[in-house]
Amino acid sequence: MATIDGRPAQYGISLKQLRELMEHRGREGVAKISEFGGVHELCKKLYTSPNEGLSGSKADEEHRRETFGSNVIPPKPPKTFLTLVWEALQDVTLIILEVAALVSLGLSFYKPADEDAPVLEEEDEHHGWIEGLAILISVIVVVIVTAFNDYSKERQFRGLQSRIEGEHKFSVIRGGEVCQISVGDILVGDIAQIKYGDLLPADGCLIQSNDLKVDESSLTGESDQVKKGIDCDPMVLSGTHVMEGSGKMIVTAVGVNSQAGIIFTLLGAAVDEQEAEIKKMKKEAKKANKQKNKSQTGEAPTKSTSHAPQSHATNDGIKSESDGNHVQQQTSSSAAETGHKKEKSVLQAKLTKLAIQIGYAGSTIAVLTVIILIIQFCVKTFVIDDKPWKNTYANNLVKHLIIGVTVLVVAVPEGLPLAVTLSLAYSVKKMMKDNNLVRHLDACETMGNATAICSDKTGTLTTNRMTVVQSYICEKLCKVLPTLNDIPQQVGNLITMGISVNSAYTSNIMPGHNPGDLPIQVGNKTECALLGFVQGLGVKYQSIRDEIPEDRFTRVYTFNSVRKSMGTVIPRPNGGYRLYTKGASEIIMKKCSFIYGHEGTLEKFTRDMQERLIREVIEPMACDGLRTISVAYRDFVPGKAAVNEVHIDGEPNWDDEENIMSNLTCLCVVGIEDPVRPEVPDAIRKCQRAGITVRMVTGDNINTARSIASKCGILKPNDDFLILEGKEFNRRIRDTNGDIQQHLIDKVWPKLRVLARSSPTDKYTLVKGMIDSTVTDNREVVAVTGDGTNDGPALKKADVGFAMGIAGTDVAKEASDIILTDDNFSSIVKAVMWGRNVYDSIAKFLQFQLTVNVVAVIVAFIGACAVQDSPLKAVQMLWVNLIMDTLASLALATEVPTPDLLLRKPYGRTKPLISRTMMKNILGQALYQLVIIFGLLFVGDKILDIESGRDQDLNAGPTQHFTIIFNTFVMMTLFNEINARKIHGQRNVVEGLFTNPIFYTIWIFTMISQVVIIQYGKMAFSTKALSLEQWLWCIFFGIGTLVWGQLITSVPTRKLPKILSWGRGHPEEYTDAMNLGEERFDSIDSDKKPRAGQILWIRGLTRLQTQIRVVNAFRQGLDSRYGEHTNTSLAEVLRKQTSLSKRLSETSSIEYADNIPDELTIPEIDVERLSSHSHTETAV
């Protein structure tokens, strides 16, 4: 018989049996496991040991992978470059140009027979096709550049995604050692340790558990927490969150075989089929619409796609977002909230509105240009010269059309979304180095506007390396660590035993990597401090734990934010039980009736003694910034009970926590120090200087909190501020009925600096109250840090949620926008800097882009009216458009942030996008450029003594006159790009120019290309080579923009009317403008459907589709696994599917289906509609 690693190669249980096993829940699950002989027998069948885990040998791991699969769900392949090219081609303006160019090409070869054209014209006709071809080529260049940008963005995001996935580790036991392994490496047969806050990466059966409660809403849609235990419900499933307790499980299914994986595979198949079906439906709908225009109920015809191995439908509609190698979800409540929370980032809202407005203006002018050109041509040719119609005139009309379309191309700033995405993508990449792992792109920009930060204390402001520095045992207060001999023996034993047993066995102290290093604390840091105290007394806590393994515990009351304590019940050697408890000292003290006094004598713990202890021991410790923890115990004995023991006849009712946790005997009080991180006071000073208020929200004692807040600099000696405890905070913000009132919160939050002994709900209330408040002129933009499972709601509600990368639970990371990989507050300051930099980069690009837009459009329009020809030709405008949009957005979006970004106040939500200073620069520069260009157009030929380009025949060759106009325009644009680097009216525009290699590389490249185009462009670019003198004139006018820029800077901004700033007001007002583009066909016949024209417009105007898709995929922290239909759509589908399957199983009144199929029916997913919701959230 084949063996692997000394064991038989055939497992005692097959993959199919394991899959079936995992489909049972509750009592059925217990029964099913006992059919296999219990969970220990199951371990034997999978050749693993509950205490030792897998052997960890390579051969064994490989074999398990081959037999049971690996814990990875294969992602959908990324879009190919060609698909992206095809998508870029969908742009309306480009399509019009392509068509016009093709028509122009065709006409240039069209020679009507009836014409007796003179030979001279033949020469010109040879070149007629060049312009058409040149336009086609430039369109191709634009498309390829766009596609390449999208391609590289998608690659970057995938890289980022895998980085986020790589961060997810899980604790398993291998070879008797607890080790952290990547989620993708988990195998069937692994023994995994699960604890509060974990996101389970695979399915398994419990071997042992304490007070375990799991949130299975991601699978079942039920928001109630499910109690898990070996005898009530031993099945734990992938993708669910552990909300309380801890335990150990054997992994029974991974990857595509886990419950989450099964549903993913179904969904993947379903979505593909769905796409095809939706296309079909759309066509049918159009036909139906033509036939009858009367309104319908708007129900899409539902075709059930049914496929599934068994009827999983009943309870596993998974609502999830996949994370490549493990399945991640949000809880069901969060789904509603995500939709509600991040409707649109402030910047995106303003930009979308701006792009639409510019587009409308540009298109109006473009249409006018075409009309004027054609009317002039017709009047001149047919009325004045009275010539008959010739077929070749069609060519002239097409040329006029091409000029009009080109004006439109230049007018529409499709570089805007590109600049935003580039700037964000660049920042995100750089922020990695500053320990910020950005999960949602727009969080980065929102952070620049933050006006308030609500921070945790532990781990963020402090080092989270805790040590016991004071202790109070047997009426002796020690400021140094006592030795075991200083403590009466029986008390010493109780303390060491109580701490070793009553702390999570996942908390450990490991020796440092090198001999001189500090020991490494693993697990809960407070427990590590206590274990360190035990070690300091000279006792090995591990040997105590080995005597009492976890499976001997009778009951565990795990720590949570309500209890603020933890208790463990173990059997006593001679019958009965002993409860050990530890927790916040003021809470434990209230439950104690006895205390060990001098020399270890047992004393009654009276109210007076309690107050004295709090006054003389606990408060002084707290004022030193120490966290105080009390350890206590209680015995339940079957025989005669001593004073501090309880007599019992059977097993006590462990669920009656109130009674069990009373009449305790206090063993000791310890003060734990968690020093402030050395860099934090400086970081907080920077925040305050930058106009950001830092508030501390902590669960600690109010004195500890005050002490730490003063050390950090959150509290300044002479300031007028509030420090509240959670209870007092609630009393102040609730009315007589106990409801929270916004006007009451508004009285509290502006002065509040420290909120102590607060619950997660208090944190959420504070954040919500600040965001909804309208007390300040600029609305508050709030950032929040959190690490616990219960911080989820506050992190989601905040404008930017920061989760701790080291101490944070998976649930907190899921709810956050940015993960601080070093848990350090000073990294938040870096995030603020980058965020402000993004905002400024976009503003720089806008200032540059709008100047060019204004000038190009006016020149084309007035040129058309005055000279019957645009001075700037179509191909030339496309080249300017390329410099303007793509290259400039690259150059300006990659500026590096400077510390002086932190010297100004935040913009807030209502700050105008284009400030008066920027508008002054835009209008000033546009004026200069227009004067120069029109000067050259009308008198340039005389000044420079060259042949005039005005009144030339349409088919005439290029002239030096118009070449100089084009060249001067590009020179002015290029030098203005340097001006655009500063937007706050600074004089020195070249400062820091050489810190940005991308900028000067692109600038030099553009300059060289321009020389080549002018000297060798000939017919293709309608240029004629210039002499050196003419070049110097062009460059002279170009450099003039820098000098002119200094003049503009001298004009005082404050004198300008406020109307010159653009984009004021809260972006909520803009959402209507945005929804136009995204509200595609909500139902086949929706009365809100925008006109097709509008849709075309907005789509053509901003090439948002690709950008949105990429940003969306990123925002939801997914790989773009399901292309455009990811994020909410998946979640929604699954939720719908679950509710449907529930309905199918519970009632007979079915809304969707007339007959109930046996297999799983995944209801019709209107992917267009769902993805449109997701777009609405993120139009760039």
From TrEMBL:
SUPFAM superfamilies (UniProt xref): Calcium ATPase, transduction domain A, Calcium ATPase, transmembrane domain M, HAD-like, Metal cation-transporting ATPase, ATP-binding domain N
Name the UniProt record assigns to this protein: Calcium-transporting ATPase
Ranges annotated as spanning the membrane: 88-109, 129-148, 354-377, 397-426, 845-866, 922-940, 960-978, 998-1018, 1030-1048
Single annotated GO MF: metal ion binding
EC number in record: 7.2.2.10
Chief localization: membrane
Function: Catalyzes the hydrolysis of ATP coupled with the transport of calcium.
One term under GO cellular component: plasma membrane
Example GO BP: regulation of cytosolic calcium ion concentration
Enzyme's top EC category: translocase
Pfam families (alphabetical): ATP_Ca_trans_C, Cation_ATPase, Cation_ATPase_C, Cation_ATPase_N, E1-E2_ATPase, Hydrolase_3
Compartments, as annotated in UniProt: Cell membrane; Membrane
Biased composition regions of type Polar residues, renumbered to the chain: 295-314, 325-336
InterPro entries attached to this UniProt entry: ATP_Ca_trans_C, ATPase_P-typ_cation-transptr_C, ATPase_P-typ_cation-transptr_N, ATPase_P-typ_cyto_dom_N, ATPase_P-typ_P_site, ATPase_P-typ_TM_dom_sf, ATPase_P-typ_transduc_dom_A_sf, ATPase_P-type_domA
Residue ranges, compositional bias (Basic and acidic residues): 58-67
